[in-house]
Design goal:
The complex is a heterotrimer of chains A (about 280), B (about 350) and C (about 120).
Chain A (H helix, E strand, L loop, with lengths): L4 H4 L15 H7 L5 H22 L8 H26 L6 H6 L10 H4 L5 H22 L5 H29 L3 H14 L13 H6 L10 H14 L22 H15 L6
Helix pairs in contact in A: 2-4, 3-4, 4-8, 7-8, 7-9, 7-11, 8-9
Chain B lengths: L17 H24 L12 H20 L1 H5 L8 H26 L5 H9 L16 H19 L8 H29 L3 H19 L12 H6 L7 H19 L9 E3 L4 E3 L5 H11 L3 H40 L1
Antiparallel strand pairs in B: 1-2
Helix pairs in contact in B: 2-4, 4-7, 6-7, 6-8, 6-10, 7-8
Chain C lengths: L5 H6 L19 E7 L6 E8 L3 H12 L7 E6 L39
Antiparallel strand pairs in C: 1-2, 1-3
Classes of the chains: A mainly alpha (about 280), B mainly alpha (about 350), C alpha+beta (about 120).
The complex binds fe (ii) ion (FE2) (2 copies).
């Protein structure tokens, strides 16, 4: 009665399938352990994705329209997938799982950028944050596919295709909010202003990234600055909005000057896992 | 139907007088009714533009929209755990699951729209608190184990209810249900798996799982609606093939299914009377607390207010976005019209 | 009048769904019908409907909603209001002509039974 055959035998317009792609599980099982420095790099990239996925997940059931609940959900799921790849790979260097890294590191140990830690704000601010981050990651992954580290290259290859859609999603909304009503243009501009100070941090040549870039493993962050900024400027102007003039906020080095939000984000994300250390879920 | 366009045929006098028109309409309706009856008898599908009795249309709109509202409000109890899911795998699963529910709401609203009620109208009914949705979502998902219990029991009850509806007489509804059921099958399994893992974990985890099952069992059984004796409209709905089995039949079927599933979990169901009845070939179970059920339906559940407030806030906060996108589309349409004129 | 004639009410509803656009409400997005090609070599098939402010967003929403499980390789979106439908009412004889013309089908021709490749 309740078996799948009861309804799948019936007419349905489309057929579902898993589709072939790498998964965090298959990656964890197959790849060689990451070298120490590469692991630290993967961790930094993965933390960005994890925190942003955490932020975006909050929109589900709160989006402006049902269709958008689903769109933001898809993006959050993509990002969470990227985080899981990267954390799994990073953890392979230290015998740690993705969950060890996600749930049992402290604020000081996270490497996420402040951009992804910013509040969702209103829908415009979320779109602004998406715009900056997706444009940045698109340029990043486009180069990382050529990494000398084959695992990173494979992850970048998968992520690039997904991030391509994320930047389109952000740009489409930027145009609509920028060119919609007076109210939406005002909010969109405010959203851009709110997140702009945290853009610069993405281009800081921190270690071990810079050293790994020398070896053709990582992408040198400062090399992304021009292409990302150029595309952001063009898109924002096309949307009839102003490119914010805000300077990068100080502390743009992913060192220890993380945002005040981070503690709250982690407290919420980690609370249950930490109540039951060592438990399986 | 207040937004209906005027029927142009009624003022088109080139084909005869108004009385002839009225006569023709009456004939049409009679032929339509006979056709509809035949479809029902042969268990065939009614499609959107077919003639259908007004009551059939109304009943369907109510049933399908309530179902849609349940999917939408149902996002909240589990959505509440997305940010705290205890592993990244579980976080992905939960996010995908809650997102699916938004999709289910959307498929169902679409089906109801083919009956002449706009999605916005249905949103309004939910927004103003006039519409009903499944009472179970007015209970809190207090612990992580509730996510498991909801998936196993609530989605499980929903599937039991929905699989027969894949053959509902109204085409768009049946097709929506096929799509929903395909997606639901993962929901129930992931819930069961959460409970299984908890049940085989630490004593604290197992207790968490048992508590959640204890809380969810009764309300989940009530998802099938009041006992048949108190369900006056069921007969008509069954004649119309928009309800395939009675509330009690479905409930029994569900109980029979979950008993062995609970055993496989290593958890108990909170009903001391629950036992196999050889004669009936079914499990006997105790009466449910229907006073509580009706009290929750009337709005006095633990979270009726919160669920609605959450929904309203999302609609309110999104209004400017929806407006902006519509305004942008209008401007684009205008400017492409202008440029077409210029180039002409 | 439309109010008392149920067939008339149905006439205003395109197969995909009702198109009610209240000009006073600028925030209601129109309805779109979504067609998905599930694999190369197959036709686009109606998958369902959705709301979107414009064609570009309709396409994206369709991708997000109707191809989450790898259902598609290509999508069409069409404003529901643009669909022109035949009268589905079987009382009309619209499709009667197509019935009973067995000679249009290969099975009508039985002489050749047993003859190879025919
Ligand atoms: Fe559902
Ligand atoms: Fe579900």
């Amino acid at each position: 009665m309740n078996s799948a055959a009861d309804f799948t035998s019936q007419d349905s317009a489309t057929r579902i399938s898993v589709g072939e792609a790498i998964t965090p599980e298959s990656l964890g099982a197959s790849s060689d352990p990451a070298p120490e420095e590469t692991a630290r790099y993967a961790l930094l990239l993965g933390d960005d994705c994890l925190i942003l996925a955490q932020r975006l997940g909050h929109w589900i059931s709160r989006a402006p329209e049902l269709e958008e609940d689903i769109a933001l959900g898809n993006i959050a799921l993509d990002l969470l997938g990227h985080a899981r790849f990267l954390l799994t790979y990073a953890g392979s260097a230290w015998g740690k799982s993705e969950d060890d890294l996600a749930y049992f590191r402290s604020e000081e140990e996270f490497r996420s950028c402040r951009l992804v830690e910013q509040d969702n704000g209103d829908f415009a601010q979320t779109i602004a944050r998406q715009l900056l981050f997706s444009f940045y990651t698109y340029e990043l992954y486009q180069r990382l596919v050529d990494s000398a580290d084959t695992t990173l290259a494979a992850v970048a290859d998968k992520a690039l295709k997904e991030v391509d859609y994320h930047q389109d999603h952000a740009a489409q909304w930027l145009f609509r909010l920028g060119g919609g009503t007076e109210e939406s243009a005002r909010r969109m501009q405010a959203g851009l202003e709110a997140v702009w100070p945290y853009l610069e941090e993405l281009f800081a040549d921190v270690e071990p990234t810079a050293a790994l870039a020398q070896q053709g493993i990582a992408v040198l962050p400062s090399s992304l600055r021009e292409p990302v900024l150029h595309r952001l400027r063009t898109t924002i102007e096309e949307a009839g909005l102003r490119v914010p003039e805000a300077k990068g906020a100080l502390g743009a080095d992913r060192s220890g000057r993380f945002s005040e939000h981070r503690g709250f984000i982690l407290a919420e994300m980690q609370v249950l896992a930490r109540q039951h250390p060592g438990a399986t879920w | 139907m207040s937004n209906e366009k005027p029927d142009l045929r009624a003022v088109d006098t080139t084909h005869g007088s108004i009385t002839e028109q009225a006569q023709a309409a009456a004939d049409d309706a009679r032929v339509g009714w006979e056709h509809f009856q035949q479809l029902m008898e042969e268990d065939k599908r009614v499609e959107p533009r077919d003639w259908m009795p007004e009551q059939y249309r109304k009943t369907l709109v109510r049933q399908v929209s309530q179902h849609a509202h349940s999917e939408i409000i149902g996002m909240q109890p589990e959505g509440n755990w997305i940010s705290r899911a205890p592993s990244l795998k579980r976080k992905s699963v939960l996010m995908a699951k809650v997102q699916d529910e938004a999709g289910h709401g959307l498929y169902l609203y679409s089906a109801a729209e083919t009956l002449g009620t706009s999605r916005d109208e249905m949103y309004q009914q939910l927004y103003t608190g006039k519409a009903k949705y499944s009472s179970i979502f007015n209970y809190p998902a207090r612990t992580w184990a509730d996510v498991g219990a909801i998936g196993w029991l609530v989605d499980g009850a929903a599937i039991t209810n929905q699989v027969p509806l894949c053959r509902a007489s109204y085409g768009p509804y049946g097709r929506a249900m096929v799509r929903v059921c395909k997606e639901e099958s993962f929901h129930q399994r992931q819930g069961w798996e959460i409970l299984y893992t908890l049940s085989h974990g630490t004593p604290a985890q197992k207790q968490m799982a048992q508590d959640a099952v204890d809380r969810t069992y009764g309300p989940a059984l009530q998802m099938f609606g009041p006992p048949d004796a108190d369900s006056p409209n069921s007969q008509q709905s069954m004649a119309w093939n928009i309800k395939r089995f009675s509330n009690d039949e479905l409930r029994q079927r569900f109980v029979d299914m979950i008993v062995p599933q609970a055993e496989a979990l290593g958890l108990t169901l909170p009903d001391p009377e629950l036992k196999w009845n050889e004669e009936r070939g079914h499990y006997d179970y105790s009466d449910l607390d229907w006073d509580e059920f009706f009290s929750v339906v009337k709005g006095n559940g633990p979270l009726n207010h919160q669920r609605l407030a959450h929904y309203r806030a999302a609609r309110d906060n999104g209004a400017w976005v929806r407006e902006a996108a519509a305004a942008y589309a209008a401007k684009q349409a205008d400017s492409s019209r202008d440029s077409a004129l210029l180039s002409a | 009048m439309a109010k008392t004639d149920p067939t008339a009410a149905a006439d205003h509803i395109p197969d995909g769904g009702v198109v009610i656009e209240d000009p006073a409400d600028h925030s209601v997005w129109p309805l779109w019908e979504v067609f998905v090609r599930s694999a190369r070599g197959l036709s686009h098939v109606h998958a369902g409907s959705l709301h979107a402010p414009d064609a570009a967003m309709a396409l994206r929403n369709a991708r997000d909603l109707y191809t989450r499980r790898n259902e598609g390789t290509s999508i069409w979106v069409i404003p529901a209001a643009e669909i022109v439908a035949s009268d589905p009412d079987s009382k009309g004889g619209y499709f009667e002509s197509a019935k009973g013309k067995a000679y249009r089908h290969a099975t009508y021709y039985t002489q050749s039974e047993g003859v190879p490749h025919l």
